[in-house]
Amino acid sequence: MVIRGGSAGAFTTLACLCFQNVFKAGASYYGFGDLGRMAQETHKFESRYLDSLVGPWPEAEEIYRDRSPLNHADKIQVPVIFFQGLDDKVVLPSQTEMMVDKLRHNHLPVAYTAFPEEGHGFRAARNIERAIQAEWYFYSRILRFPLSEAIESVPIENLPDSF
To answer: What CATH number does the domain containing 35 carry?
Structure first.
């Protein structure tokens, strides 16, 4: 099985990869890995979103820290592909980049595709198509199945020959 999600669903994806051992790979679309930074850095409309889900910030800072995938990235043991809009004001690109850096440092297969003109949630058809194809390509390499048609590859770092 693989797991994928966008935004809060990507947070769930990353948390499942940290705290469970049932998936062979994951895909994170504009997701956050650090709850504390999310509470502090997101735009005003989302700024209190986590209060009812996690606890009020900063009073519940320890809970935010304990539940943040970024702080448990060393527990991720499977490849992950990340997609991020660089104009995202809800989940800042640094959230994705920190997770990617952690997985690189842990020598896990990781791929990262950034879309400069996209915000939170992809809108341009060409970017949606590219992300889906990149995710499919990634799974084909990780799970070792042939693609039925040629699609553009995506660079996967730390991919050993055994994959």
So the answer is: 3.40.50.1820
pLDDT digits (tens, 9 = 90+) for 26-46: 999 999 999 888 877 765 556
Task: Give the total number of structural domains in the chain.
Answer: 1
pTM: 0.93
First to last CA, the chain: 16
Distance between CA 148 and CA 145 in Å, rounded?
Answer: 9
Instruction: Identify the domain containing residue 29 by its residue range.
Output: 2-143
The C-alpha atoms of residue 86 and residue 132 are separated, in whole angstroms, by 18
Q: Give the sign of the dihedral formed by CA 138, CA 142, CA 147, CA 152.
A: positive
- Residue 158 DSSP SS3: coil
DSSP string, 39-59: HHHS-GGGTTGGGTTT-STTT
